[in-house]
Design brief:
With 559 residues, the chain is α/β, with parallel strands linked by helices. Helices cover 48% and strands 11% of the residues. The strands form 2 sheets. A 9-stranded mixed sheet has the order 4-5-3-2-1-6-9-11-10, with helices on both faces. A two-stranded antiparallel sheet has the order 7-8. Strand 2, helix 9 and strand 3 form a beta-alpha-beta unit. Helix 1 packs antiparallel against helix 25, helix 7 packs across helix 8 and helix 22 packs across helix 23. The longest helix is centred in the middle third of the chain and has 24 residues. The radius of gyration is 25 Å and the shape is globular. This is Methyltransferase domain-containing protein. It comes from Solanum verrucosum. Pfam families: Methyltransf_32.
Length: 559
């Protein structure tokens, strides 16, 4: 029986209590957090794990193993194993999509075909939900302008502008994205204008997003924006000059806004899956723009002018593996994790392997059928065995090419997406870095698998391993080895193949609680800054369709 959820994050003290509970619980399992499944055989990663757990799980069905990350246990499992899994579940944020019918004034409307053009099912779902939420928050705080940070091709910005009639500034680091956004917005404007003419409707002006090209990707870049004037090119696109020095202090009041058109506007800052540090940067800017009522604020040698323009921020993050992380003893560091003083004081650090793990999607793994799950474990096993081949015969390659095997990422995503859409009418697979690392040379493996029936695969595992290794070596432009080299690795690793599924599942069970820790750290950052900020976490997407579904919402409530 699952434990009752007992943690809350309504206040800074409650959030910090939850954070400490997570830190204390995961401390003995650091061997999971720091591990790379690709080194499963080489480093004998199963040895630190409770032997009773592994003996039990090596006999379990693939389906039951895939449910472990979601906190599902079986009655016959050892008590300590059940306690481990259920405690992780109790420490994790609930990912079930919020019932928006409970939000007064919020209605999620289906996008028209013209606005949805180019969006896949996942993106459409995200834009529909987030645009409705942004519109509601904008009404609540009395804002008419939205700054879409990391706007990409402008899907969110255009829905906010055309469907919700908000003034939108779409900021992205890539000028090409700005051009795509402008071209797409113009097509949409022409479509609606033609539709009004056809229906003899009264002509009205459309709110079209303004695009700004600005590399708001790090705190250092933000420092450089204060002396960067907004320039208009011949097409009307707005760009921030890149000629400023990163050593200059940032004013933040007008740094990322076209000062003439929007100088009198209050605004909401929004970001849909702003990558890595960008989501954290959004929160830092928003908190600092609202926290000081006494004029200038001096922090980390930055000088800020008070800015009352930003009334709210809505941030949906992603790509935790790309967060920057600095030593916790560096005062006022602006890394991506940890960001709150509470977590910094606790001395917790998550390296890239652990942050990769936070990107796992328990809901998606649970939705895979047994064949797809077994396929996943086989890929992990073959890749881990191939790692021994490289370690013994080409050790320099491991130092020079730590991310070998990413060539199969896209194919694996497409393959799992077809499985999930068939069974659940939802989108693709987990996109964790660990999964990408472990599933090497998928294209070759899938080709080999498709050419064999189930019986021959079981009988000819060694032949499959040899082909997998030769394919991998070929991709690395390395010569093939003698058969004895492959057979030696196969003999010593084959008997442990059945352990990789249990190990992977137990390690993946830590993913949701690690993501919870990262998100609570961000929430605590806002709660620490100012009691006049109302901050919360809300799951706004279907977690199967969009695993990074937690939005951080902060509103300025000072009158």
């Amino acid at each position: 029986m699952a434990e009752e959820f007992k943690y809350s994050c309504n206040t800074a003290s409650e959030t910090l209590q939850w954070i400490h509970a997570i830190i204390n619980f995961i401390a003995p399992y650091r061997y999971f957090l720091d591990a790379h499944v690709v080194n499963f055989f080489k480093d004998r990663l199963w040895e630190p794990v409770d032997k009773e757990w592994m003996d039990c799980l090596r006999k379990e069905s693939v389906g039951n193993l895939l449910r472990i990350p979601s906190g599902v246990v079986q009655d016959h499992w050892p008590g300590s194993l059940k306690e481990f899994i259920l405690t992780l579940r109790s420490l994790s944020l609930s990912r079930e999509q919020a019932d928006f019918q409970e939000f007064s004034g919020m209605h999620i409307a289906s996008l028209s075909n013209v606005l949805a053009q180019g969006m896949n099912h996942k993106k459409k779902h995200e834009v529909e939900a987030l645009s409705a939420l942004v519109s509601l928050v904008a009404k609540q705080v009395g804002a008419r302008t939205v700054v879409d940070v990391g706007a990409g091709q402008g899907y969110l910005a255009q829905v906010l502008a055309f469907d919700y009639q908000l003034s939108v500034i779409a900021i992205d680091a890539c000028s090409h994205h700005g051009k795509i956004t402008d071209a797409r917005a113009e097509r949409i404007r022409k479509h609606y204008a033609a539709k009004m003419r056809k229906n003899c409707s009264e002509q009205r002006e459309f709110s079209v997003p303004k695009t700004v090209t600005c590399r708001v990707l790090s705190s250092d870049t933000l420092r450089a924006l204060s002396n960067s004037p907004v320039e208009n090119d011949h097409a009307g696109n707005q760009h921030l000059s890149q000629k400023c020095s990163v050593s200059q202090p940032s004013r933040l009041a007008e740094d990322i806004l076209p000062s003439r058109s929007y100088s009198d506007s209050t605004l909401v800052i929004a970001g849909l899956h702003a990558c890595g540090d960008l989501s954290v940067t959004m929160l830092r800017v928003s908190a600092r723009m609202t926290m000081n009522v006494h004029g200038l604020l001096h922090l980390s040698d930055w000088t800020f002018l008070e800015c009352d323009k930003a009334k709210a921020v809505i941030s949906v993050g992603c790509c935790y593996n790309l967060l920057s992380e600095e030593a916790i003893d560096i005062a006022d560091s602006c890394c991506g994790f940890p960001v709150s003083q509470g977590v910094k004081s606790a001395g917790v650090m998550l390296d890239k392997s652990a942050r990769d793990l936070a990107c796992q999607s328990a809901d998606r793994w649970r939705g895979l059928d047994e064949h797809a799950g077994l396929h996943n474990f086989e890929l992990h096993a073959l890749r881990a065995a191939f790692q021994i081949v490289l370690f013994r015969h080409y050790p320099n390659i491991l130092r020079e090419c730590p991310t070998i095997g990413r060539q199969g990422k896209a194919l694996r995503r497409q393959q799992n997406q077809r499985i999930l859409e068939s069974n659940l009418h939802h989108g693709g697979p987990s996109e964790s870095g660990e999964a990408r690392e472990s599933v090497s040379f998928l294209h070759e493996y899938s080709s080999i698998q498709s050419s064999k029936n189930c019986k021959s695969r079981a009988v000819d595992g060694y032949s499959l391993f040899v082909k997998f290794c030769e394919s991998g070596l070929g991709r690395l432009h390395l010569p093939h080895l003698e058969d004895t080299a492959y057979s030696a690795v196969w003999r010593e690793s084959e008997s442990y193949f059945e352990l990789i599924g249990p190990y992977w599942s137990l390690r993946a069970a830590l993913g949701p609680v690690l993501e919870t820790l990262i998100l609570l750290d961000r929430l605590l950052l806002l709660q620490e800054y100012d009691s006049d900020l109302e901050a919360s976490l809300l799951p706004i997407f279907n977690p199967v369709l969009s695993p990074r579904n937690m939005a951080i919402i902060a509103k300025k409530i000072r009158k």
